[in-house]
Design a protein that fits this description.
Order of helices and strands of chain A: EHHHHHE
Distance between the termini of chain B: 49 Å
Structural class of chain B: mainly alpha
Distance between the termini of chain A: 6 Å
Structural class of chain A: mainly alpha
Shape of chain B: flat
Number of strands of chain B: 0
Helix content of chain B: over 70%
Strand order of the largest sheet of chain A: 1-2
Oligomer: heterodimer
Helix content of chain A: 55-70%
Largest sheet of chain A: 2 strands, antiparallel
Strand content of chain A: 5-15%
Radius of gyration of chain B: 21 Å
Largest sheet of chain B: none
Strand content of chain B: under 5%
Amino acid sequence: MRNNIKVFRAMNDMTQQDLAEKVGVTRQTILAIEKGKYDPSLGLAFKISRVFDVNVEDVFFYD
Amino acid sequence: MRRNTYFIIVAGIAFLELCLLWWSINNPPKPPGREILAILIAAGIIIALLLKGKTEDLPAGDERLHLINEKSAIKTLQITWVLLFSFAASSIVFIVNRGDFFIKHFLGFPFIQMLILFCVIVIFAAFRIYYTDKYGGFDSDEE
């Protein structure tokens, strides 16, 4: 699964740590998701999308 | 309970258990002292585990950390089980080939080990059934 979390973070002027704190995970988890090494759960994917105020399909792409 | 208090208590329990173990090696107790000692050591470990549930601000970890721990634990269980079973089986073969003295005095240990390994399988099966039910494995289609 691919994602463009990095783009949305840049658009919202947010660091990985900021996003991690908002969704209740560690910075390493956000880093792993951005690099494609870890696929988030459905709940976490929705939380991340809500932080950016977009739909989950705008952030995550299933190959 | 605060995290530091929990760590201090666990360190204290571990120290007491080590002292008990050391004392029992130097002064082997007679029954029922041996049984009481075994129960005390097990009780210390159980108390430490129960206190962990009552401790605040222990780092809980996020879903990724839980997945890492889960996969590590299952692989460790599989490998440990195979290693212990292999050791127990080869011990039985070794002891049986050594003669009556070894059979009489040592054969019990690998059999007890195999019994424990069998209990591990039973416990694993019980947990599998529990979690299958919890996550809807036994539900039927309403249609």
